[in-house]
Write a structure and sequence with these properties.
This protein is mostly beta strands and 126 residues long. Helix content is 0%, strand content 53%. The N and C termini lie far apart (39 Å).
């Protein structure tokens, strides 16, 4: 089982930027497709972004498209979420998650992901 640890959250003003990191240990990250999720009203976890194991395919939620970018560095066993033009409604705990590429090439469904980090808080002030 891969262990995931998020970092990079914090307090930022609206319009600002943050870069979240998700560091993996225990297994090599290239075995996994990765995703970022956040809680949302009426949902346990809302899809934010996902990336295929090599990084050649990505997906972003409509609510963050053009503002957030997911990327990965398999040599560093790390996945990133660059967050620009932040809005107060982006305030949430952000979780990274992993699914073995054997099971899914890329996924937007939280139920597909078997490993989760503890989350990092992002707060955007207006």
């Amino acid at each position: 089982q891969v262990q995931l640890v998020e970092s990079g959250g914090g307090l930022v003003q609206a319009g600002g930027s943050l870069r979240l990191s998700c560091a993996a240990s225990g297994r090599t990250l290239r075995q996994y497709a990765m995703g970022w999720f956040r809680p949302a009203p009426a949902k346990e976890r809302e899809f934010v972004a996902a990336i295929q194991w090599s990084g050649s395919i990505t997906s972003h939620a409509d609510s963050v498209k053009g503002r957030f970018t997911i990327s990965r560095d398999n040599a560093k066993n790390t996945v990133y979420l660059q967050m620009n033009s932040l809005k107060p409604e982006d305030t949430a705990v952000y979780y990274c998650a992993a699914v073995l590429k054997l099971y899914s090439n890329i996924s937007e469904s939280d139920t597909d992901f078997g490993s989760w980090g503890q989350g990092t808080q992002v707060t955007v002030s207006s």
